[in-house]
Specification:
Layout: H1 19-29, H2 38-49, H3 56-63, H4 67-79, E1 83-86, E2 94-97, H5 99-102, E3 107-111, E4 117-120, H6 124-138, E5 151-154, H7 157-160
Parallel strand pairs: 3-5
Antiparallel strand pairs: 1-2, 3-4
Helix pairs in contact: 2-3, 3-4
Bound molecules: zinc ion (ZN) (2 copies).
């Protein structure tokens, strides 16, 4: 959507992409003949610094990367498997570093009203339970599990307050 609000131009954060993530991303992009450009680096840095998945608009605001470039970079990095799209509600997709690059396995809370997506860590107990149950359930199917995605939907605190 064209939420072209020239207002609320928060100053771009200058959080740098961590060296470990940068080298992993460079290695992943090389076979695709994509380089870790200044803009791609800035897009990845804001996702790495965020504690929740971000909309494309938020990435533009926080990175200072021009909108068309940021959108193109997001799409390229999704195709390359470096960024994952997290589907929110009403088409408001959000983006985060793929877990193999963030090294952070986690789950999402999705607000069905405003669409905000928040990260949460499941307990070790729940992770073990999910893995065990899935293994048991799929034992006879021959399906090889690589990872799981488990999102919880509901209403965030500010939507409950009816703001
Ligand atoms: Zn909400
Ligand atoms: Zn999990």
């Amino acid at each position: 959507m064209a939420g072209v609000k020239p207002a609320s131009r928060t100053a771009p954060s200058h959080a740098a992409l961590s060296p470990a993530t940068a080298s992993a991303v460079i290695a992943a992009l090389a076979p695709l003949e994509l380089r870790l450009t200044r803009h791609r680096r800035a897009v990845l840095a804001v996702l790495e610094a965020s504690d929740r998945p971000l909309t494309a608009e938020e990435v533009v605001q926080r990175s200072g990367v021009p909108m068309s470039t940021a959108y193109r970079n997001l799409a390229e990095l999704v195709d390359a498997g470096v960024i994952v799209r997290v589907s929110g509600v009403g088409g408001g997709d959000r983006h985060e570093l793929a877990e193999q690059f963030s090294q952070h396995h986690h789950h999402h809370l999705v607000c069905v009203d405003c669409g905000i997506v928040t990260d949460f860590d499941a307990s070790a107990q729940l992770e073990k339970l999910i893995a065990r149950e899935v293994d048991t359930l799929l034992a006879s199917s021959g399906f090889q599990v690589t990872h799981h995605v488990f999102d919880v939907r509901g209403r965030c605190v500010s939507c409950q307050a009816g703001a």
